[in-house]
Amino acid sequence: HHRAMSALPKVYVTRRIPPDGLDILRKSGQVQFELWDSDDPVPRVELLNKVKGCDGILCVLTEKIDAQLLDVAGPNLKVLSTMSVGYDHLSLEELKKSLLIWACIFCRGIRVGYTPEVLTDAVAELTVALLLATSRRLIEATHEAKTGGWGTWRTMWLCGHELANSTVGILGLGRIGVAIAERLKPFKVKKFIYTDVEPRTELANMINAEYVSLDELAKQSDFLAICCALTPETHGICNWNLFSKMKKNAIFINTSRGGVVNQEDLYEALSTGLIAGAGLDVTTPEPLPTHHPLYTLKNCVILPHIASASYTTRNAMSALAANNLLAGLRGEAMPKELKL
Ligand code: DGY
Questions:
Q1: Which has fewest Cβ within 10 Å: 61, 122, 249, 288?
Q2: Does residue 61 line the site of ligand 1, with CB under 6 A?
């Protein structure tokens, strides 16, 4: 029995993941896994210690998967499965890299699984909620009601901006951008526009969106939703140059990654009235320290990275991450494998 156990591939799971994924790993009988059984991230030193000699790693977005970690893990590592659709925490170059070790060429060739699609609905829903909360000033309004600011009904008090007849811009049109547009359409949006590295005709046709330049996106959008991946190309793309071209009434919504935004520039844009408001589900860093200036702005709504946080979706992500891992270790195609 012991010999059979030790022959099973060794896996490290870097966090207490939702039950569906853990059940799949347990019932598979295919792996022996150790779990960082906590709601908080595993300390880096512990992580480096635990991945040594592993065949597979199942991680979440707080773990930096870089050269150091891969070197420590060693040549057994075949599969990395992240419980996220975002993969900016993985250094893909390192995962596929060839190394020269003891005069031998050694290709890491680590396969990567991620969790697209299963979270699209939850993220789109939250994005719409955040957009409306920001444009109709809901957080400010509940605060006023609770703290005595509600004197009487006033004609211009807490006025915001409405979706009806508006132009909605999407920066980075993928599954999530489409899902957001589909949900916003019944609010009588006049026009959808988007930009990306190149036109996404098939997706754009689903929502009747027009391809424009980044400049035009900034100039025309009444609402701008950021739905791109964080890459070297999109890092800091939402900066003064972009904000300064936007409309005064514009609402900026980010549910992708904090790194796409230059937060100093956003602070300037919000505090000087260059744009009307911002709703952020993602920031740099995370958590955003409570003393951060963005919290002082009434026109900035900040959420603690909860876009995919529904019971159904987090379990689906957990299950998919587990199934990706197991398929990868069997040498089969993963349900959702990242093309490296
Ligand atoms: C992701 O999956 O990348 C989100 O940021 C967390 O669900």
A1: 249
A2: yes
Are residues 281 and 156 part of one domain? Answer: yes
Please say whether the beta carbons of 258 and 280 come within 8 A.
yes
For residue 101, the surrounding DSSP H or E stretch is strand 98-101
Q: Could you say which of 1, 143, 161, 305 is catalytic?
A: 305
- Do residues 127 and 241 share a domain? yes
What's the CA gap between 201 and 173, in Å, rounded? Answer: 10
pLDDT by residue for the chain (340 residues), tens only, comes to: 454 556 899 999 999 999 999 999 999 999 999 999 999 999 999 999 999 999 999 999 999 999 999 999 999 999 999 999 999 999 999 998 877 777 777 778 899 999 999 999 999 999 999 999 999 999 999 999 999 999 999 999 999 999 999 999 999 999 999 999 999 999 999 999 999 999 999 999 999 999 999 999 999 999 999 999 999 999 999 999 999 999 999 999 999 999 999 999 999 999 999 999 999 999 999 999 999 999 999 999 999 999 999 999 999 999 999 999 999 999 999 999 999 9
Burial class (CB in 10 A: 0-12, 13-18, 19+), 100: exposed
Q: Which protein residue's CA is at the shortest distance from atom 1 of ligand 1?
A: 84
| Residue with CA nearest ligand 1 atom 3 | 86
Counting from 1 in the atom list of ligand 1, the atom nearest the Cα of 309 is 7
Q: Say if 285 falls within a structural domain.
A: yes
Residue 337 domain-assigned (yes or no): no
Which residues are CB-contacts of 42 (< 8 A; sequence separation ≥ 6)? Answer: 14, 15, 36, 50, 63
Q: What pTM was estimated for this model as a whole? A: 0.95
CATH code of residue 185: 3.40.50.720
Q: Is residue 161 annotated as a catalytic residue, yes or no?
A: no
Do residues 40 and 181 both lie within one domain? no
